[in-house]
Prior knowledge:
The protein is 62% helix and 6% strand.
Amino acid sequence: xxxxxxxxxxRPPTLLGIPSYLAGNVARATTRTLTRSLAEHGLSLNxxxxxxxxxxxxxxxxxxxxxxxxxxxxxxxxxVDRLExxxxxxxxxxxxxxRRVLISATAKSVEAERRITEAARAAGSSxxxxxxxxxxxxxxxxxxxxxxxxxxxxxx
Length: 156
């Protein structure tokens, strides 16, 4: 599997033949850039993910957010606490089940999330400039396929 490895690479060729090594290192590189971009907007990666989940799926309980983002349920409380303090989300009791607390995006977060997501897309794209648009689309399809299989196994 190492036949396509760049002979001038600084990394061990054996590791470059291990998909999880490659994926992990690309993830770390892109996450550093994304984290810096989000910090400029006062958000962590996980806080941004919560806002995006609320935009995509609407109001949810914290355990639903955790399940959709594949993060520990106990961590979501901290993410939501900070977002609530900053005026990005509200908590409210569900009308038909007063025990259930829903997290909802505020108007402030809807506007901010759109801007921040665009900035995050732009920040993360520079590492992928070496790929053609078709290659990038193929990479996204393949990564989604792997992640979808992981989610099916995790939730199934």
